[in-house]
Predict the structure.
Amino acid sequence: MKFIDKLLKVQRKNRSLLCVGLDTDPAKLPRHLGASKNVVLRFNRQIIEATSDLVCAYKLNLAFYEALGEQGWHVLQETLAVIPRHIVTIGDGKRGDIGNTAERYASALYEELAFDAATVNPYLGYDSVEPFIRSDRHCAFVLALTSNEGSKDFQRLTVHGRPLYEKIIQTTLKWNTKQNIGLVVGATHPAELQPIRAIAPSMPILIPGIGKQGGDLQSAVRYGCDKNGLLAVINASRSVLYASSGKDFAGAARAEAQHLRNQIEQLRTQFFS
Amino acid sequence: MKFIDKLLKVQRKNRSLLCVGLDTDPAKLPRHLGASKNVVLRFNRQIIEATSDLVCAYKLNLAFYEALGEQGWHVLQETLAVIPRHIVTIGDGKRGDIGNTAERYASALYEELAFDAATVNPYLGYDSVEPFIRSDRHCAFVLALTSNEGSKDFQRLTVHGRPLYEKIIQTTLKWNTKQNIGLVVGATHPAELQPIRAIAPSMPILIPGIGKQGGDLQSAVRYGCDKNGLLAVINASRSVLYASSGKDFAGAARAEAQHLRNQIEQLRTQFFS
């Protein structure tokens, strides 16, 4: 199945644009889970089982697994194995390297780990992105305007009268012959989401930055969606994972995910019906 | 010891600006080594033992280790353990993520794996680089003008009349309060090395792209070095690693490394004495 069809299908089935970011930090886990090697995997499994009917995607931040050292790869694989197949998986490593190296990264993420999608940094240009968009079963979410403070340092520089991130988006539109490029735009930039959606009317947009980072959920839904009220993938990580540090952590994560999903659905109804 | 002092010391001791890139690809290894789990490690060990008196640094391309799957981390650790301590090690992952995630990457590379330096993508701005430059024992090599074809897509865009990569270099100069930022500039851009060295007279410059990629060694030495004929770190990967596919691979790698080191030394003598 094409990536874009898989995404649309699960967004409709679960009536959800919510993506839960499994940025699992061993230092923040409920104490009763202990500190054994498998604690991250046990935590992830319970979070996934508690939320998988409420989300369209899970995003796994690769840095958090790399930080686990030798066991990280195993935990990644086993976590992915728990995620139901109809839900989109995003390998969030923000990879960007020269062609022959980018091929390695793409092969690790798409073949070895079987992610559906990956986040990609555009700074190295076409040959760094191309291995991630060879098949329309996979999607490369290209960093456009990221959610962090540092996004102002270079992404907003003016190029021919327009911000650099816009120039990058325009260029990715030309690369998008297989309809399998998406964008990353932080919810912390609500004023920019509308013009970005206008430039790229049918790309999926991954929107991190709600919750802990303080992004604007209303704009994320209103301007992040395509004309049918779909294709925005709105990510929350810490606010869901660490909703409770007690024995009820999975239930609390479910309640928070449900709350977010419902808020998003309400806004979708308001703006797209 | 400060990173910059460690680099200068080993460049003087080994009279070498050569960095060997351990981008080890299991598919390209000499057949007689077999295909066991440890083949990459055995190959790396022999390459390091055959070349460590001829180099100032080893650069490990993380994609090649990630592509090994579950054993990749172990192979990284064991390879690093073989490298003599006075030689600089560079974790080449071109990482770039928001602050709290960049901290994870930096901790994995600097604390868990004990690399001296890392390559970093600047597109996400200051908070994505800062965790890599907290200590002057470590160095972040920031991607400026990369060796690949795609470097023209965005890196050369005009910002206030100057190329984007120059704007990025100017900004990293302001961040460089601990003298521990370096640049990555491909040897495939010989005409740009001189102006870049003029802007950043005392930063280490990591210069990939000689050998297979066809970069210009003479310009790499002449314009990549600081005024003392040091601080250029000139990387060769495939031309050294795969100098022979026979049983003599380590000897052939040594011969190729020696040839490159001597060529570089000759050029240094020509331009800096």
